[in-house]
Amino acid sequence: MNGLITRRTMLAGGAASLLAAPWVAKAQANTLRIGMQSILSGPIALLGTSSRNALMMEQDRINAAGGFLGRQIEFVFRDSKGQPQEAARLTRELVNSTGCELLIDAEASSGAFAVQEVVRDLGVACIHTNSETSSLTADPKIRVPTAFRVARQGVHDAVAGSIYLSEYANAKKLNKWATCSPDYAYGRDTTAQYLQFFKQFKPDIEIVTEAWPKLGQPDFTEVITKLIQAKPQALFTLLYAGDLSAFVNQGNIYALFTQMAVATPNVDYPVLAAIKNLPPGIQSATRYLETFPDTPANKEWGQAYLKRWNERPTNWSWQNTVAMHFYEAAIKKANSLDGKAIAAALTGMKIDTPFGVDGTITMRDDHTTINYAIGWGQTTPKEPFIIDVKAADWGKIIELETEWKKQQKYI
Amino acid sequence: MDLDALGACLTTPACLVTQTTSGLIVGMLLFLVAAGVTLIFGVLKVVNFAHGTFYMLGGYVAYTALGVTDSYAAAVLSATLAMALFGVVFERALISRVYGSNVLMQLLICYAVVLIFDDVVKIVWGPEFHAMGMPPAFQVPPLFIAGGVVPPFYAVLIGIAALIAIVLGLGLSMTRLGKTVRAAALNPQMVSALGVNTTLLFAIVFAVGGGLAGLAGALAAPVRSLSPGMGFSILIESFIVTVIGGMGSIAGALVSALLIGMVRGFGTIGFPQFTDGLIYIVMIAILLLRPQGLFGRSS
């Protein structure tokens, strides 16, 4: 009988398994699940995949340090494909069916507003990591007690970008501008914010045409030819990820970038790498740049990400990383996973991080972060891709953001 | 609505040239995809909802082939042949089993293929977008004709698509195989009774349809982002083209694809907020006047 499994052995094994089962189940139940849904496929999947990559690095780091409240953490990732109704459904499912106790909402704004309402209903702690539409947290009617945002914000970028671009436009005498932004909340709202501040700093600019391509639109030919017909001196665009790559590649064959200056706040490393024949001299925000802030900690994180994933991080990567830093600090402070307790701990919290302009980022009492690194420079086809970076003035950003909030009757 | 801008464009040679080129390129790429849809429907009465998948896979195959061979011509050829072969396998393995079945069964099979190959693309090429980039031969400044902008790459694309349209038209009307295909579209039982190998004929039709979609995907790859699910948007438009042109009519597909292209090209000037809606209004107007489509036969 040696080497064969006898009936007795089978029974003993089975009994042992039965006895062990509760312990295994308990160990599994003890794991803290964190739900994350995002756009993980399609032309702007980079948003979701680079967020997921950063979160997996955080999972390893946090678990190696003992987890949250002594429990190992485990992410549950879901693909909403960028559909708001799917994002809302997945959020509910992650909490009610999958047992997630915390949420990272890594949707673009199109999905984040839908998730926000589900979080309002569930009362669980949630951090939005990728929605840049200001009203998500700025508008008290939309704000939710247990939902926070760790992401750059349209109004902050608009102030910083407008100051930089007005100086650039004055120096180059560029008065006729065109805009080309994705046709949804983020594109519409943030373009309006940029134009509002841009006109404030440079009253003589004229918008000669506006283009609103759909999110994920495959062909920009009609948009490009329309821009050429309008003969602007400069173009401002909020296209991003695969859309920006396709727009630049299609624009190149019309020599679009020799006919007008271009400015965009949305250039990320992988997009820069994917754009073949990147035109030099595009005025660009930094999003994420290893050399801005130029600190060892920032470079170390960027290199660790590159080593792990064999590609550079994005703006979304650092935002998701900082979200986990905030959760870590807030849970430790609150000693609880309760949504209200975490919310109380998060409000007003300031943490040390490589991504802050002075090494810190603060979660303001209106549930959004400030003091993250914002800079503008110009593109170059080779590394570091963006050069001559000028840091934005956060004092000015907050001053004008407050004015804007008053205009919107948010405060 | 900006009718002044549209009027100014129509009377300015530079704008006319630029927007006409824009309309032609959009229309010709649509035609290549829609020609396959309408050919398959015309002969087999199968509405191939998986046709966008052929287009997507064509783009990805070209992307990989370019990386291996460093030749755009080889990439285009590889994508066309690979999708022609894929068309044959798709027809033999799946579609041939549901000829004459309920259209819902055909739809189910096509939809399954769409979902399966979207996931296959994610596994093989990853979920993120890829950009092929412009082949070096076309990295040249655009041509300026009467002040209008004409990219050389697009001029070549329009030329290739026009050539395909001529070959397809002549092939269907003047060759024995083409005549057999047309006969099969009208009366497949009679064609079969006359001893024609309809199994082979149907496989050839799928090969041609698949090859055309693969070709369109490969031609579009240098300028459009490649991503899983990219076939869906072009599928919708190619169905609009097929319906407007008349189900089963290659000439109708060409005319309606060019019509859609021009609506896009000039609609973006005159109706910038309503270009997509304009396409559907054109479709509704044509179908109200000719329910069978521009070149369709009345039942």
Please give a quick description of this structure:
The complex is a heterodimer of chains A (411) and B (299). Chain A is of the alpha/beta class. Chain A contains 15 helices and 15 strands.
- Which stretches of chain A are poorly predicted, pLDDT < 50 over at least 5 residues? 1-5, 22-27
Count of helical stretches of chain B = 12
Instruction: Output the structural class of chain B.
Output: mainly alpha
Strand content of chain B: under 5%
SSE order of chain B, one letter for each helix or strand: HHHHHEEHHHHHHH
CATH class of chain B: Mainly Alpha
Structural class of chain A: alpha/beta
Topology:
The complex is a heterodimer of chains A (411) and B (299).
Chain A: H1 7-30, E1 32-38, H2 46-64, E2 73-79, H3 84-96, E3 102-106, H4 109-122, E4 125-128, H5 135-138, E5 147-149, H6 154-172, E6 176-180, H7 185-201, E7 206-211, H8 221-230, E8 234-237, H9 241-253, H10 256-259, E9 261-264, H11 269-274, E10 283-285, H12 296-309, H13 315-334, H14 339-346, E11 350-352, E12 360-363, E13 369-370, E14 375-379, E15 386-391, H15 394-407
Helix pairs in contact in A: 2-13, 3-4, 6-7, 6-15, 13-14
Chain B: H1 3-10, H2 13-44, H3 51-69, H4 72-93, H5 103-125, E1 143-145, E2 148-150, H6 152-174, H7 176-186, H8 188-193, H9 198-220, H10 231-245, H11 250-270, H12 275-289
Helix pairs in contact in B: 1-11, 2-6, 2-9, 2-10, 2-11, 3-4, 3-5, 3-9, 3-10, 4-9, 6-7, 10-11, 11-12
